[in-house]
Amino acid sequence: MKRFLSMGYGILASFFFSFSFIMNRAMELSGGYWIWSASLRYLFMFPLLLLIVLIRGNLRALLITMKEQPWVWMGWSFVGFGLFYVPICFSSAYGPGWLIAATWQITIVAGSLLAPLFGKNKIPLKGLLMSLIILFGVAVMQAEQAGNLSIKSSLLGVVPVLLAAFAYPLGNRKMMEVCLGRLDAYQRVLGMTIASLPLWIALSVYALVHAGAPSAGQSGQSAIVAICSGVIATVLFFSATDKVKGSVHQLAAVEATQAGEIIFTVIGELVLLKAAFPSILSWIGMLSVVLGMMLHSLLSEKQVSVQ
After folding, report:
1. What is the arithmetic mean of pLDDT over 152-172?
2. Among 75, 82, 307, 300, which residue's Cα sits nearest to residue 175?
3. What is the pLDDT of residues 220-255, one digit of tens each?
4. Are the C-beta atoms of residues 95 and 104 closer than 8 Å to each other?
5. How far apart are the C-alpha atoms of 286 and 262, rounded to whole Å?
6. Is pLDDT at 25 greater than 60 in this prediction?
7. 160: which residues sit within 8 A by CB, 6+ positions away?
8. Angstrom distance (rounded) from CA 39 to CA 34
9. How far apart are CA 124 and CA 132, in angstroms?
10. Of 109, 225, 282, 302, most Cβ neighbours within 10 A?
């Protein structure tokens, strides 16, 4: 039951995470500065999460925990939030949202490859093979789109996302180790947001000097991203990983649910941005992604029964 609940949380998180890719592309197309897109999300997240944690009466416990290892919190929050979202926003200037979302699925393999860094875990080879099915679908979609992009755009749209794909699961898992189960998902997300505030404030100052204040439209869209991706999706995803943190196989399966972001992003761009309808080849790629997700889920269930 816990596995199915965590997988459900993961799929819901992928839906709300897709707002980042859609809105970042929308802001880029309307002339918004990508650094504002990155920093405004977390600046808007901070008061929202602070209010939630205050209402739940858990702020004091969070601050005490953060005070124990402030530099550790800042370091891994910089990795998990900063090295994740800054590259994602930068890449939005060089490709459609669905392509960025597709490249982001490298995080599925990244999560498996990072397993040896945590305790005595080994790389889950069977899970990694299921991840390759997902990546096959990603490759099919990217190959079709490659002819429409220059080499420069392809590299600037892909390489930063590869960095983000490793940074996000690394930061998330390391913070789970630091928290030792003492904090819930809301506290952990707020703590990482607080710890990364110096980065977002510094980027905001830079953006203000070099590009001026953000437009009302970009501020509004960033607020939507903050609520949907920053608060709802992140809390759902962190809750999902918290439920299965004792099993590297189930953790990999939950991380694989983020492949749903591709499909949700494609639908969102079709509806909101009037993007071109994907070709048959693109749909084959997306079906491969869905198949990989299903096989990942079945594999994790088998591993649990064996253990």
Report:
1. 86
2. 75
3. 999 999 999 989 998 898 888 887 776 766 777 787
4. no
5. 7
6. yes
7. 87, 88, 90, 91
8. 9
9. 12
10. 225
- CB burial readout 17-47, b (16+ within 10 A) else e: bbbbbbbbbbbbeeebbbbbbbbbbbbbbbe
* 3-state class (DSSP) for residue 123: coil
Type of residue found at 149: L
CB atoms within 10 A of CB 15: 19
Instruction: Please report the pLDDT score of residue 1 as a whole number.
Output: 63
The span from the CA of 10 to the CA of 78, in Å, is 23
Average pLDDT, whole number, for the chain? 84
CB 259 within 8 A of CB 90: no
What burial class does residue 301 get, using C-beta atoms within 10 Å of its C-beta: 0-12 exposed, 13-18 middle, 19+ buried? middle
Mean predicted confidence (pLDDT) in 67-92: 95
* CB burial string 254-279: b at 16+ within 10 A, e below: bbbbbbbbbbbbbbbbeeebebeebe
Q: Which of 2, 3, 17, 42 is nearest to 237 (CA)?
A: 17
Structure tokens at 275: 């993007």
Give the CA-trace dihedral at 51, 53, 58, 60, to 10 degrees.
-50
Handedness of CA 193, 231, 185, 88 (dihedral sign): negative
Q: How far is CA 291 from CA 26, 37, 65, 302, in A?
A: 29, 33, 41, 17
DSSP string, 172-185: HHHHHHHHTT-S-H
Max intra-chain CA distance, the chain: 58
Q: What sign has the CA pseudo-torsion 201, 164, 50, 219?
A: positive
Query: pTM, whole model, 2 decimals?
Result: 0.83
φ, ψ (nearest 5 deg) of residue 299: -65, -45
- 202, two tokens: 């510094």
Residues in the chain, overall count: 307
Of 82, 87, 78, give the one whose Cα is nearest residue 106.
87
* Token representation of residue 73: 């919190």
